[in-house]
Write a structure and sequence with these properties.
The chain is an alpha+beta fold. The chain contains 15 helices and twelve strands. 40% of the residues are buried.
């Protein structure tokens, strides 16, 4: 078996993430294919859609959230994801053990140790069925029943154990509002599926992120002991080899483009799927550059893909009447690459700031 180079593996993942070519497909269909977009922040994930959907209009994407055709809720790795209601109902039962484990190991779990967590969850669910509440409002109501326990800790127990979605207007393009939660089933009218389905999750992952190792699937989902799932699915998969000899599992008919396929410049948002989907991220970022992305506050910088790998960070700089993208290359770019970064940066500004003039892409040295 001829090993796949890192470049070949990277091109395969870029193709499945719709980062080799934007697609003209409905936003909900794209989000479904991707098994969700991480949506930890309120609006930066719109850039993730802009990178992947040709002609995306942000107001139209935001309207899907306002109408409940997309939702934001806690899923893989215990982080907020943008998904369809159907996928939230399918995925949440499968990743619930991750969220429960995170709670047990958190300060919130320690603060409520000795209490009946299911009783807290049931009380919170009943309160939220009366109407959406912010975490502070929910915590205050729960503290009436459990005096002496911080409301924030009680609220977190409910948010971990009850499938909730964060409701609009928060997250809607051009809108703002405090985080407020509602039970997913009452908000969407769709009940959670009856049982976890790790097999389906494994296959969905490969369609969006493969080829990959079992460790990669575990890193993306937060689940453990997925080797037995891989073995159960082996007759539906193919086994490939990376250039280091590691076994990579994949779907037989998934795209694996030629490694020399051109990869356009893309401005990734801070929590883009591409940099959250693998235990070994060397297919898209070098070990040295990965170290540049580590931050003390857990908020990674937005990054720039050049020829399929992370080569720079970026940020938007706004004044009252102008908008610019400031790019910090990690190493010198060729003149052609710099021109491509400028062209894509101007397109990004047209998406982010159509009402402001003076669009500019400028390069800065690392701090």
């Amino acid at each position: 078996m001829t090993p796949l180079s890192r470049r070949a593996v990277g091109r395969a993942t870029l193709a499945r993430q719709f980062l080799l070519r934007r697609v003209r497909r409905p936003v909900a269909e794209v989000v479904t294919h991707l098994a969700g977009l991480q949506a930890q922040t309120t609006h930066s994930w719109y850039v993730g859609l802009q990178n992947r959907v040709d002609g995306l209009v942000p107001d139209e994407a935001g309207a899907l959230l306002a109408r409940g055709e997309l939702v934001r809720g806690t899923l893989m790795r215990g982080t907020l994801h943008l998904v369809t209601p159907e996928d939230f109902a399918r995925l949440r039962p499968t990743v619930q053990p991750v969220i429960t484990r995170n709670l047990a190991h958190s300060a919130h779990g320690r603060a409520t140790r000795g209490l009946d967590a299911e009783e807290i969850a049931d009380a919170g669910r009943a309160l939220l069925r009366e109407g959406p509440l912010t975490p502070g409002e929910l915590g205050a109501r729960l503290a009436e029943r459990w005096p002496g326990v911080p409301g924030g800790d009680l609220s977190h127990v409910v948010r971990a154990l009850v499938p909730l979605v964060q409701i609009p207007p928060r997250g809607v393009w051009g809108a703002s509002g405090p985080p407020a939660f509602a039970p997913a089933d009452t908000w969407t009218g769709r009940a959670m599926t009856d049982a976890p389905d790790p097999d389906a999750l494994f296959l969905r992952y490969l369609a969006a992120f493969g080829p990959a190792t079992v460790r990669d699937v575990q890193a993306w989902s937060g689940l453990t002991r997925l080797r037995e799932v891989a073995e159960r699915l082996r007759d539906r998969l193919i086994a490939l080899r990376g250039e280091d000899g590691t076994e990579l599992l994949d779907l037989p008919d998934a795209p694996r483009p030629d490694p020399d396929t051109p990869a356009p410049v893309r401005f990734l948002y801070d929590f883009d799927n591409l940099l959250r989907g693998h235990a070994d991220r060397s297919r898209v970022v070098s070990a040295e550059d990965l170290g540049r992305l580590a931050t003390r506050n857990g908020m990674p910088p937005a990054t720039v893909l050049v020829d399929g790998t992370v080569r720079a960070s970026w940020r938007a700089v706004r004044t009252r009447n102008t908008a610019a993208v400031e790019v910090v290359p990690f190493a010198p770019l060729s003149p052609v690459q710099a021109d491509e970064v400028v062209a894509e940066g101007l397109e990004l500004l047209g998406f982010l700031e159509p009402e402001r003039g003076g669009h500019e892409v400028r390069f800065a040295a690392p701090a």
